[in-house]
Specification:
The chain contains 6 helices and 5 strands, in the order ααααβαββαββ. The longest helix is centred in the N-terminal third of the chain and has 15 residues. Strand 2 and strand 3 form a beta hairpin. The chain folds into 2 domains: 85 residues, no CATH class; 34 residues, no CATH class. The protein is globular. By secondary structure, the chain is an alpha+beta fold. Strands 1, 2, 3, 4 and 5 form a 5-stranded antiparallel sheet that branches. The mean pLDDT is 93. The structure holds zinc ion (ZN). Zinc ion binds next to strand 2.
């Protein structure tokens, strides 16, 4: 997808979450520490209030709290298991591993039903997250390994 198509959304309807999906989103948001949850809610409201961004995709929390066991499984990816390296943290080392969690991961539901981790959309969402609360750090700003879906306080 070209960057222009990612933000234009011409001729498309905005992606809508089902009732079940909305409940899942609320449950994941409920796992976040209050300051991060508030920043996400504000950034989401700004995003959905922008007619261009709204058509580009619907922000979704893909993960907030992550058990240390699941963290260990993710750590194996790209090492003892196939796939790209997605984390440098072992179980218990990630900010995702405490509850409430000071970290959450974001993706976008596109109008065609696909889930996107577009760096362009994530950078736009990161701007809204940081504007909502200056304590929010975006993984895309990290030196070295960029974790663009990742936000933390
Ligand atoms: Zn993360």
């Amino acid at each position: 997808m070209s960057p222009n198509r990612a933000v234009s959304g011409v001729g498309r309807a905005a992606a809508q979450l089902s009732g079940v999906q909305l409940k899942v989103q609320a449950a994941r948001l409920g796992q976040a520490v209050p300051s991060l949850a508030a920043a996400y809610e504000q950034a989401l409201a700004r995003w959905l209030g922008d007619p261009v961004l709204r058509l580009a995709g619907r922000p979704i929390i893909t993960e907030c709290y992550r058990s240390p066991e699941r963290q260990d499984e993710l750590y194996k990816q790209g090492r003892s298991k196939p796939g790209p390296v997605v984390t440098y943290k072992r179980g218990g080392e990630s900010k995702h591993n405490t509850l409430p969690a000071p970290a959450l991961d974001v993706a976008f539901l596109l109008p065609d039903g696909e889930v996107s981790w577009s760096g362009l959309l994530l950078s736009k969402f990161a701007r809204l997250m940081k504007a909502a609360d200056a304590r929010v750090h975006w993984g895309g700003d990290w030196p070295g390994f960029k974790d663009r879906p990742h936000f933390e306080v």
